[in-house]
Amino acid sequence: MEDSEFVQPAEGADVFDERQLQLIKSLPTTAYLVLGVLVVEDGELSAVDLKTRADFTLGMFYWAPAVSHIRRELARLLELGMVTEREVRTGRVRSTLRYQSTSRGERLLQRWSAALPETEPVVVKHPVLLRIWLASSDEPTQLLEALDRHIKSVRYRLDELHWGRRRAEDLGLDRRKDPHTRNAMAVQNYLFRSLYSEILNCEQLRDELARGTSQDPISRVNRQPGALHPRYREPSSGENERE
CATH assignment of 18-111, given 1.10.10.10, 3.40.640.10, 3.40.109.10, 3.90.76.10? Predict the structure, then answer.
């Protein structure tokens, strides 16, 4: 998705000078994603913490920026007063910088998200489906192996999502009943359903491609065909009378 156009604050809202307005207009989507994680988490996070949170949230349906990009956007947001910065000592000589969203940052994020297009088509880039669509019918083995690798990869992402939720529970971050994080949790549940659906769809596709090969799904059934017999049916009263 292209960076959304900046929406000028309404009268009586936050006041920015000309330089700040130009800086806000130049903020990329990554800056708003970083700000969004801070707003949803509603606490102080370091750049590494932000990267971890983004991997288990945004990375599942959008993208998770690198730590270097996160630090760059934090510097811009800090200059605009969208976040605060605090140095926290983690040892005798080591320290880390922690950031938290401000009310000004939350208002900016709300204006930006409200301007996101609602009818923009969802672009699905599925390289495995493209390979199958372009492949000839005489290479089923390679296609089945590619599907197997894809299904394994999706299962790994699903396991990572389960691990992330369990880790959040252990750290007291899984606040499902908290209205502040209700939307984020709803999206996470959507991601669970999406990954399970992807596995089922790919397994059905694999069975369809495997028909007539040595990996035909019927080979998984260990049963003798046996003889077929017509089912017994009680004769109707009319049939009895005709007899």
Answer: 1.10.10.10
